[in-house]
Structure prediction request, 274 residues.
Amino acid sequence: MISSQPSGLHAFTSGVGQGLDLVFSGNQVVVDTTLRTLHLAVESTLIAALVGVPLGCALGLGRSRVARALLRLASAVTRVPPVAIGVLVYLLLANGGPPYGAGLLAGLHSAGKPVGAYLDQTLLAIPIIVALTASAVKGVSGLLLDQARAFGASNWRRGLLALREARRRVIAAILVAMGVTITAIGAIIVSNAPLTARVGDHYQPLTLAIGAFTTFKQVQGSTAAAPQTAALEEPTVSLAVAYTIVLLGLFVLIAAMLTRLQSSRLSWIPGGQS
Prediction:
């Protein structure tokens, strides 16, 4: 007599099958949440790159004690848990009242709004980009930079030259930071950014990671993590699995791009190699 399949395993296999069906059928909830995730991650990472790349280049080329100290600080901050960044953002955006009072950015009136998620992800990405960019420019030949200085190149031109030579590693740093921002769920939750955002006439999870987190919490019988929303009318397990599948797919894509950067040589001249 063949024993019946355990209910837990049956629920898992059924959820995976339904989740794959939601992904490949282009379910609108999954598609919209994916686009929101990419929009949030790309914009936050670009803002972080505008700050982190020049700063990382300056610290990487700097020879002073201050530059070395700031670089060590940036490297240390990369190890700070996202939850701690979430606490910092919460305190910065707090509107006031006990026990903490108003935060430094309370005037923006952004507490409990999606802007907190942007700030979370940007602050997470900046130290990563700074540390990895500094490491990249440190690897540029000192002889090349000394020659540039001998020909009268200013400090900012030497910085551009260093970035040009280390461009693959700088791009890789930005991609690594983007991978972190895509899953900044701990920071977003702690900073009191909304777990869901209004899209049209209903609410959807703010990111894929939050969608998977909240729907799995509902599987466990807890609805405290997020309100009941129209986005969660899909079978809970299958929707959570769909979010997870797309999230893993994004990680595989980023890993493939990093591998491509490591195995190829980029050129400023179309069709050429540097």
About this structure: Residues 1-6, 222-234, 266-274 have pLDDT under 50 and may be disordered. The domain at 31-194 is CATH 1.10.3720.10 (MetI-like fold).
